[in-house]
Amino acid sequence: MPTYVAFLRAINLGATRKFPQDAIRAVVESTGARDVETYINTGNVRLTTGLRSTTKVTSVLEAAFAADRGFEVPTVVLTPAELVAIASDADELAAAHDRLGMQYVSLLKRAPTPEQVREIESVEIDGERLVVRGRGAHLLMDERDSYHGARLSNDYVEKRLGVSTNRNARVVRELATRWG
């Protein structure tokens, strides 16, 4: 059976979007998935299932999350190979960025078109730039210590490339090592 890695978007924000790790695991297991594992409480889940595509896994998980929580939980599902490639891209981009402060990755629900990639990569704001590789939009920030002031944030990415969820590049690398 195939293994997938799911990234939940916009959970554990405020009082009304709580979704603890134990509850996430229980809901994922209720879909028939096996070997369910979570990593930190930001919505990172590894699962094995008989479903044969990321699209099907996404649909089943999103429906189960909405039924359990009472609110939509947009979910980005990757194969382990896709996750490893995104982590490798993060390493390569970090090595090539001589003034790198912080690095984040917006994990995209769907691969963007070449036109979308050209458009988003043409923008640089206050020492921030985005580089898109496959389903990862990598935010490279010059010598900064906080994502909260970023102008090219996940909100910016979503408006241009569609549903995505953001993780620190260190978390992406750790998950690629654990689950890749």
List the helices and strands and how they pair.
Layout: E1 3-8, H1 21-30, E2 34-38, E3 44-48, H2 54-69, E4 75-78, H3 80-96, E5 100-108, H4 114-121, E6 124-125, E7 128-133, E8 136-142, H5 154-161, E9 164-168, H6 169-179
Antiparallel strand pairs: 1-3, 1-4, 2-3, 5-8, 5-9, 6-7, 7-8
Helix pairs in contact: 1-2, 3-6
Describe the structure.
- With 180 residues, this protein is of the alpha+beta class.
- The chain folds into two domains: 76 residues, Alpha-Beta Plaits; 100 residues, no CATH class.
- Helix content is 39%, strand content 27%.
- It is built from six helices and nine strands.
- A five-stranded antiparallel β-sheet has the order 6-7-8-5-9. Strands 2-3-1-4 form a four-stranded antiparallel β-sheet.
- Strand 7 and strand 8 form a beta hairpin.
- Helix 1 crosses helix 2 and helix 3 crosses helix 6.
- The longest helix is centred in the middle third of the chain and has 17 residues.
- The protein is globular.
- It starts with a strand and ends with a helix.
- The mean pLDDT is 95.
